[in-house]
Structures are given as C-alpha cells and as structure tokens.
C-alpha cells in the first residue's frame, strides 16, 4: 500500500535533516568552526540553500542539533552496554568512557560542540538540559541499586550524588579534554575514576 502524501513528506523531511547534519558534521570535523558555512554544507549535501534554511536558521543551530542527536545516540549505546554484574563505579566509568571515546575520536567536531555550548539558542539548550536531567535520573537509579547491594553508603542522597558525579565528568571534559587537549580516552577515564573513588568513600 502506498504511503499517504503527508507521511511521505515527513519521511523525506527526516531524511533531509539527517543528510544536512551528516554533511555539517563532516565539515566541522575537518574545518575550523568559523570557516564552515551554510553554503558549504549545502554544496556537500547537494541540496539548495533554501532547503537548509527550512530546517535550520543558522550555522549554530545546525551544530547544536548535531550535538543533541549525538548525545542521545551515545547515551542509548552506552546504557545498552552497561554491565549489570559490575560495581556502580565501573558502570559509571563505562558510560563516561563511551563519551570520551567519541570526543577524542571526533576531536575537532567535539571541540566545536563543547566550546559553543553556552552560545546555543534556548531551544537547543533546553533539549540538552533535558538530556542531562534524564541521565542524572538514570545515574540516581544505578546509585540506589548500588546502595541496596551495600556498595555505597545508604545515607548518601542518591540524586545529589548523581549530580556530584556528573560535575566530576564535566570537570574532566572541560579541563582535560578542552583546556589541556588530552586525547587518550583511557587517561580521561582514569582521572574521572580517581575523582569518583574519592566521592564514593
């Protein structure tokens, strides 16, 4: 049975969005942010400028959309491979390292994502903040399970502890990856592990 026209348009719109963001990622990966242009993205994607503007009003919104999509995909992949039979600390490092591997493998793209984070439009900041809230809630659930197993002091507030651990993750990302330009995911994970160990004592 042939798809209704409205459904076909929605599918085509989604496919075009994916094509635009894939092309944008390639340019942000190989060029400085200031050198990337919407015209360049359009040329690489082989679509018209007007089509891009129907999806994204400017270059920064394109970058933010790509980052938001990558965060969600990385989270889904990381959570889908969390080992059930390991300690909470091992689980948290497993999740964090998946992000570190992505950031260090896609170094220029990731630096563009993170260095422009505070300039994103409200729409994208709200989406990324919602992602962070979802992640914090999942960490709190993993901490609670670890408290039930006797790994973590049950008197610790699992939600506050989740936020504290996320702050350690962001510290390593900002200071070691962005500022010090460290590109070894194992080293980043080891530094985070040291901070986590001290927090869980």
Would you give an account of this structure?
This protein has 201 residues and is mainly alpha-helical. It folds into 2 domains: 1-56, Arc Repressor Mutant, subunit A; 60-200, Tetracycline Repressor, domain 2 (Orthogonal Bundle), CATH 1.10.357.10. It has helices at 5-30, 38-45, 49-55, 59-80, 88-105, 107-115, 122-148, 158-179, 185-200. The radius of gyration is 19 Å and the shape is elongated. The N and C termini lie far apart (61 Å).
Q: How do the helices and strands line up, and which of them pair or pack?
A:
Layout (H helix, E strand, L loop, with lengths): L4 H26 L7 H8 L3 H7 L3 H22 L7 H18 L1 H9 L6 H27 L9 H22 L5 H16 L1
Helix pairs in contact: 1-2, 1-4, 1-6, 4-5, 4-7, 5-6, 5-9, 7-8, 8-9
Number of strands: 0
CA-atom Rg in angstroms = 19 Å
Task: Report the order of strands and helices.
Answer: HHHHHHHHH
Helical proportion, percent range = over 70%
Number of helices: 9
Kindly report how far apart the N and C termini lie: 61 Å
Task: Give the low-confidence spans.
Answer: none
Question: Which class best fits the helix and strand makeup?
Answer: mainly alpha
Tell me the count of domains: 2
What's the level 1 CATH class of the largest domain?
A: Mainly Alpha
Largest sheet: none
CATH superfamily of the largest domain: Tetracycline Repressor, domain 2
